[in-house]
Amino acid sequence: MTGLIQVVTTTSERDDAERIATALVEERLAGCVQILGPIESTYRWQGRVEKTHEWLCVVKTSQDHYAAVEAAIARLHSFDEPEIVATAIHAGSASYLEWLRGELRPTGEQDLPNSDDGSCE
After folding, report:
1. For 9-22, how does the pLDDT look when each residue is reduced to its tens digit (9 = 90+)?
2. CA distance readout (Å), 114 to 28, 72, 80, 91
3. Which of 9, 37, 108, 109 lies most in the core, judged by the most C-beta atoms within 10 Å?
4. Spatial contact of 69 and 61, defined as CB atoms under 8 Å apart
5. Can you name the CATH fold of 4-88?
6. Phi and psi at residue 19, in whole multiples of 5°?
7. How confident is the model at residue 109 (pLDDT cuts 50, 70, 90)?
């Protein structure tokens, strides 16, 4: 095990995906966030089958940063119930995984992004 994870979330607007991605990287909670889309999602919400176009964010981070990443996504997200799902990175290029670890804030510096104005500065 590498101790690294990928967290995914979806947004209805590209601007929302970009805001979440920028916040996570600026706060060093993620080394990289990829935005893909639009994608088509089919799901059940409040008893109805829905189909929407969404933007998928793939967040590269560590298990140690998961709680702060989840809290930041929940705070920055416009959905009532955003998808926030993590999967382990079991293996990868040693040099890439080393780079990713180096881009994350040191463990123990788990302050959440500034929530005063919705930005991460």
Report:
1. 999 999 999 999 99
2. 13, 10, 21, 33
3. 9
4. yes
5. Alpha-Beta Plaits (3.30.70)
6. -65, -45
7. low
CA distance 92 to 80: 34
Region 55-69 average pLDDT: 98
Q: What is the CA radius of gyration of the chain?
A: 15
Contact yes or no for 89/6 (Cβ under 8 A): yes
* Residue 59, pLDDT above cutoff 80: yes
Distance CA 90, CA 5 (A): 8
Domain ranges of the chain: 4-88
Question: Any idea of the CA torsion for 34, 40, 91, 64, to the nearest 10 degrees?
Answer: 60
Mean pLDDT across 33-39? 98
Q: d(Cα 22, Cα 104) in Å, to the nearest integer? A: 14
Secondary structure class of 6 (helix, strand, coil) = strand
